[in-house]
Amino acid sequence: MPLDHYVTLGRSGLRVSPLCLGAMTFGEDLGWGTSVEESQQIIDRYLELGGNFIDTANFYTASHSEKIIGDHIGRHPDRRDRTVIATKFSGNLYPGDPNGGGSGRKSVIKACENSLRRLQTDYIDLYWLHLWDKDTPIEETMAALDDLVRAGKVRYLGVSDTPAWKIAEANMIARFRGWSAFVGLQIEYSLLERTVEQELVPMASEFGLGITPWSPLKSGVLSGKYTRDNVGQHQGDRGALVDAFLNEQTYALIDELELIAKAHETSVAAVALAWVQAQPAVSSVIIGARRLSQLDDNLRAADVSLDADELARLNELTTPTFGFPSNMLEMAPGIINGGTTVNGVSAPVSEYVMPTGARPY
Predict the structure, then answer these.
(1) Taking a C-beta distance cutoff of 8 angstroms, is the pair 207, 34 a contact?
(2) Catalytic residue among 60, 156, 189, 226
(3) Is 60 a catalytic residue?
(4) Is the pTM of this model over 0.85?
């Protein structure tokens, strides 16, 4: 799916590219990342190919990421209006200030004002709650965010890295009170991180939240850089985050990704990204790139469409095992439907269902 074949973000009218440009690495202020010049080149390449969705946060590279985007896009009205800019709040940039971060009204409003200044724009297209702040009532956060929407400073709201039950509570409160609700969900999701399929993905599907997965290559583990043939030859940029996943199960997955990539004449990374894009409720996959060459490689995923057999082969290698209540609910169709076919799904008669001819007392 090319970058200019836009999709709506969840149950909203916001049109975004199927691959989102993640800007976490823009700026070298923390001793790593991408120079200003190359960051601008990455933005230009993405936009030239039809991409329109850029994701950052007030916390990324000590706020330099936002400023780079502001200098290159925000100050140019013709480019700004054609771009969907998403940023986040929650991160505290002011050591010693308890209200410098979090989701309280004071922090949320100030963070928004500062992001607008750095982005050099008068509105944020998509404003994400970055991390759940358990010390702030969700009613306070949602009310403050609704005020920002009504003031025209924010267009849409999203939530990241928050429990499913808290997101459901937040959106129900917002809808009952006539406030703006979350339309997007940002979560870690990849072939090596599928635990989100127990609660968060079904919740997003049920409530119409468009998922924008981060780390779809699991910190580079599925980039194609690491294989059986070069074990120990590459030092992961993220150290322990990579080494912890370089095991037999991962190498078996990489072997399968290589076979599928060869069939499609593409890269391992492109296949891994295409798998994430094919998952239920996923609207736009966030791809990061520290180098222009990495962006070009990841963008190859837009041309990959996996068939049912390929998806099944990858699923078989990575499907996680969930505990209660998922293990109990797996038996539900047989118990509830008594061996009949409902909505196209046939289930065997459960051992708990009475034999044919038996009658309840």
Answers:
(1) no
(2) 60
(3) yes
(4) yes
